[in-house]
């Protein structure tokens, strides 16, 4: 049933979030790490809906930190600490699973997340198949902008292949590729909403 799948997905994502926290929390200056709350399946044989889920109620403003659909621009991803750490979490999982798995739909209150999804490549990953289209993985690769938390964790930029090609064509001025790389690494410079929208097409 989809309820069972929902539990399985969220609790799988939660395991990744725990591993992420174990790596990120000890880093100096990283601070609080997003947490995916557990979701429990209860069986009610006498009820006409035999399965239900139970989870902690999140009180406060519910925010989406990542998007299912890349056409919907979500500035909270870049402009809030929780949003940036969620993007870094996505990048970390993507790197850990060699690009086979991505946690999507990161949403919740502050650093507590729920209703997440997982996208995997068609064949799945280690016997696990996600509940979101693998096109989200492509979208993530195209749209992700590394931030300071990605740097703290030593994650590799997803744009390295493009930079290598550019270096080959612009051998005359060696400084250019570096200055453009620096701009990409500093999220504050990319605050113009228009930049972000045009970079999607």
Automatic annotation (TrEMBL):
Pfam families membership: Alpha_kinase (PF02816)
Compositional bias (Polar residues): 170-182
PROSITE patterns assigned: ALPHA_KINASE
UniProt biased composition (Basic and acidic residues): 189-201
Gene3D superfamilies: MHCK/EF2 kinase
Single GO term (MF): protein serine/threonine kinase activity
Annotated stretches, region: Disordered: 161-201
InterPro entries reported for this sequence: a-kinase_dom (IPR004166), Kinase-like_dom_sf (IPR011009)
Keywords: Disulfide bond, Immunoglobulin domain, Kinase, Serine/threonine-protein kinase, Transferase
Organism domain of life: Eukaryota
Bilayer-crossing regions: none
Chain ranges of the Alpha-type protein kinase domain: 1-158
Designated name of the protein: ALPK2 kinase
């Amino acid at each position: 049933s989809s309820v069972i799948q929902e539990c399985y997905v969220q609790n799988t994502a939660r395991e990744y979030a725990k591993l992420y926290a174990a790596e990120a929390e000890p880093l100096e200056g990283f601070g609080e790490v997003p947490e995916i709350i557990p979701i429990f399946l209860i069986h009610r044989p006498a009820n006409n809906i035999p399965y239900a889920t139970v989870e902690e109620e999140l009180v406060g403003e519910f925010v989406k930190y990542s998007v299912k659909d890349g056409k919907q621009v979500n500035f909270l991803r870049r402009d809030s600490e929780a949003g940036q750490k969620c993007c870094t979490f996505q990048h970390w999982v993507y790197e850990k699973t060699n690009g086979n798995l991505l946690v999507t739909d990161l949403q919740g209150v502050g650093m507590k997340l729920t209703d997440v999804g997982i996208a995997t490549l068609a064949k799945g990953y280690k016997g696990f198949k996600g509940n979101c289209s693998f096109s989200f993985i492509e979208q993530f690769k195209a749209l992700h902008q590394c931030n300071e938390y990605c740097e703290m964790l030593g994650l590799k930029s997803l744009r390295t292949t493009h930079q290598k090609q550019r270096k080959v064509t612009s051998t005359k001025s060696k400084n250019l590729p570096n200055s453009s790389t620096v701009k990409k690494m500093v999220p504050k410079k990319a605050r113009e909403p228009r930049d972000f929208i045009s970079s999607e097409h």
